[in-house]
What does this fold into?
Amino acid sequence: MEGVDHLAHERNKSEFDVDAMKIVWAGSPHAFVVSDRISKLVASDPGFRKDNRSTLSRKELFKNTLRKAAYAWKTIIDLHLSEEEAAKLRFYVDEPAFTDVHWGMFIPAIKGQGTEEQQQKWLPLAYKMQIIGCYAQTELGHGSNVQGLETTATFDPQTDEFIIHSPTLTSSKWWPGGLGKVATHAIAYALLIVGGREQGVHGFIVQLRSLEDHSPLPGMTVGDIGMKFGNGAYNAMDNGVLRFDHVRIPRNQMLMRVSQVTCEGKYKQSDVPRQLVYGAMLYVRQTIVADASCALSRAVCIATRYSAVRRQFGSQNGGPETQVIDYKTQQSRLFPLLASAYAFRFVGEWLKWLYADVTQRLQANDFSTLPEAHACTAGLKSLTTTATADGIEECRKLCGGHGYLCSSGLPELFAVYVPACTYEGENTVLLLQVARFLMKTVSQLGSSKKPVGTIAYMTRVEHLMQCRCGVQRGFAELSADLVEAAVAHCQLLVVSKFIEKLQQEIPGKGVKQQLEVLCNIYALFLLHKHQGDFLSTGCITPKHAALANDELRSLYSQVRPNAIALVDAFNYTDHYLGSILGCYDGNVYPKLYEAAWKDPLNESVVPDGYHQYIRPLLKQEIRTARL
Ligand SMILES: CC(C)(COP(=O)(O)OP(=O)(O)OC[C@H]1O[C@@H](n2cnc3c(N)ncnc32)[C@H](O)[C@@H]1OP(=O)(O)O)[C@@H](O)C(=O)NCCC(=O)NCCSC(=O)CCCCCCCCCCCCCCC(=O)O
Ligand SMILES: Cc1cc2nc3c(=O)[nH]c(=O)nc-3n(C[C@H](O)[C@H](O)[C@H](O)COP(=O)(O)OP(=O)(O)OC[C@H]3O[C@@H](n4cnc5c(N)ncnc54)[C@H](O)[C@@H]3O)c2cc1C
It folds into this structure.
């Protein structure tokens, strides 16, 4: 029945202060208040409805996304929302759209790679959305290998301009979000050529479309690259293709914080590392780690609530069947994911601090922590997105058949989420960056340069020193093993940041105890999953492994009475979850049944096509009917 909380009995079992945990999850009392208010504002506004998405054609979906983006912007203006509130509103609208790239990449790229003058010119236009930007780096022939990009930017000293050109088919820009149909401007990455000399890849602000009638400017061939994985909401994003035919832009539209080209045609490299050209990717990778905790927590919330509702087998003397959440197999699949959601939340908080710290240092031309920041953002983006994509799929399976319904919210969450393993750096390529960083650290062991920060533990791996001479030669040969070492390094990071979180003051009855249980589950689950490595290296004995497994089962039993409260602490509205299986009141079956009849296929009792195809079949008139 509507209004009845079918999970009340679960919520009454909680052994901790859920409201206090909501604040821990949000990050602070202020962040909780903003999140709670904005999520309810979005959920209560029919203008942000999303339950009909699966019935729309791609063009309808895309146009609806434009409408929502415009409506969101109007809401932001009308309600005088702050930047923080506006970002939260776009988050809870939960629709992949050009605004993600405009706010998440185009603006950070100008802030990180533009001069003061360029920032003063372009940022006000971007903040007011008087221009809409995209981040055009990837090409048909190159994505991972940025230095392999083929688009050229040739300086013409006669006119004080750059000529942007796509010399080959594979140099066509391919994938940039928002590029296909919406963006008026791009940060386009191209191989800089000055005085006949190639100077590497740099970023350029290029206007793509008229601000009068939105038509592509001369020399631009631009469009959408077509349907993407599943019928999910990511098809609301116009990932595009763009070719330049000798397009001229003023010299002052090359982003010149890292290097400059003078009007005389002199190329000047500032005394900053060229890798600052990659700065926007560092920013997005750290946001993607926070996004991973959000996406995984959504899936875990759905699967946990449904596991408490679903009963299957185990009836005694006609009594109720067993809740599937009580099965040890269900717990051993679900609770490590619950622990991972919290673990990724806290390592994401730390990574946000690390990014802010390195950004502050860069402003003072202190580049000392840039390599570590790159390794951490690259490695944690790779680790958390892989675990989250796999975790969302596991949550779908934990919900049995109903997990495969669009109304469960899980198929779409998976379809929208999985490209995170590829974009912003393909996960294996990024782990190789971490491996390179680790091996560089090994090569410095024994020198005066002592490992600090997240690699300080490596001073204790003296035995690696003997093999360091071989490492340089064997990197390619050993790369598969080194990628595993990179994963282990990142897992250690996640565990250590969870432990550091627990050393902070955490208010609320039972809250810290619950987090300690989740931290132990996360760490012991990893030990269990990789016990072969731990045993083969002598880090643990078989007895330790057995004790760890016993402890895991005990920890699952400790989580069980608190599971619903732990996912309630995410404070997601039913609107944002978009899932009948995960609805707050647990009233699943009536809602599933009601939703089925809303499917367009049920608009008529006799399906379209019956008289043309089925009736002749049934009446054996097939021989005469024209197929
Ligand atoms: C790193 C590469 C793989 C290789 O680069 P190179 O070949 O140039 O270098 P080397 O491997 O030789 O390394 C040289 C040297 O540099 C160091 N290095 C490398 N990268 C960096 C870096 N980023 N920072 C610092 N240092 C770096 C490296 O360690 C070496 O050092 P040593 O010599 O000392 O060893 C490179 O090619 C690469 O990065 N490839 C990956 C390409 C990539 O990531 N492409 C992404 C394209 S953009 C994209 O995919 C966008 C997806 C967007 C999806 C949706 C949007 C999500 C938005 C989230 C935010 C939303 C927020 C909204 C807010 C709101 O609404 O308000
Ligand atoms: C949904 C989506 C949105 C995107 N949005 C944008 C955007 O807004 N702007 C933008 O510029 N780009 C965007 N991209 C492009 C994205 O950044 C690239 O697809 C990504 O960087 C991967 O590059 P790639 O496609 O060239 O993969 P590849 O590098 O070709 O990967 C293919 C395989 O090769 C392997 N491989 C590659 N190099 C090595 C190596 N050195 N050693 C070992 N293995 C290797 C990889 O591990 C992978 O298994 C988007 C992509 C997607 C899917």
